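Researcher: Sequence of Acetylornithine aminotransferase follows. Predict its structure.
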Amino acid sequence: MSSTTVTRALFDDVMVPNYNPQQMVPVRGEDCRLWDQEGREYLDLTAGIAVTALGHSHPALLKALKEQADRVWHLSNVFTNEPALRLAQKLTQATFADRVFFCNSGAEANEAAFKLARKYAHDHFGAEKSEIISFVQSFHGRTLFTVTVGGQPKYCQGFEPVPGGIAHAPFNDLAAVEALVSERTCAIVVEPVQGEGGVIPADPAFLRGLRELCDRHNALLIFDEVQTGVGRTGSLYAYMDTDVIPDILTSAKGLGGGFPIGAMLTTDAIAQSFSVGTHGTTYGGNPLGCAVAEAVLDEVNRPQLLADVGRKHERLVAALQAINERHGLFAEVRGKGLLLGAELIDAWKGQSGRFLAAAREQGVLILVAGPDVLRFAPPLIITDAQIDTAMAALERAIEQVLEEGPES
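Model: Prediction complete. Tokens:
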């Protein structure tokens, strides 16, 4: 058997070209740090896109995974398993929900939520009640259904015809939703903070208005908390920081701390529409994923950790604002908890990728939320010293790009 040298160049030879990964290959991680093949160290402010909430190689997660791996890996849904039952119980005890459906990703959790909303409406009000209202610039996944519910048409291009019965309103514009909602509406789906759409928080009054519209029209309110959930905003779930309770909530990303798992949470009454055989997944609720997610939930759902997220938010925002006072690069710094976005001023619109690349060269890994916004979603365990070091490195990167000047 021939051996292959594994480098970034191999990606271009053997992988489908739907990604353009960075020109380094991480090989090891510990807490908020990553090392590449050359042994270079980076501070990770991406957390795998808000996934590794407890950083890399967290001892509690490693322990849970290894212990479960010694017992049973996979059973399918012909059986239930102990980790799935424990995790479901803890999620229902910690949230509004009575029932949980496990799957493998955020897209699958949203797919389940949208199917359940339509099935519930069909069961109780008839087949005509099937329309879903979503929001411009929203993101709900990459299956054909979820990408259509998402409010970014570019992700549907070339994949038509797409599912029908979906409408989009401007985010934070309650009057626009009122103009769209009708007795045909079965659900409204909203991100408490739009992530891919630019890290834009929902106004509290807007969320209250959506709840009232759903109640008035017998529609279900779905919170997509794939990115905001599991402590990311400083509450276990972002809805807890509002006075609005959804009918369905979707969770993934941080729930597994890096192990693939998703969940859809709902009430007992709504869950009944998913009777035996109506929906399913081979790997969903597998013992390995649920064991790790239970360990994540135990670690994150502690008052001190969640309070620290709010404190670290203030430190990160203050550092970004101080950078902005010196360099005048950001039009706005916004977000909740440890999900932050810094929107570039007009002169630098479309060039977020340049700052990401420059930051990497300075030893700090950041994200973008489209071409105009730098996005920060560090592990929830990031220390004050690591925040300070990362922001100093980011400022060096910004100074370098500013010196080169904007692209024409």
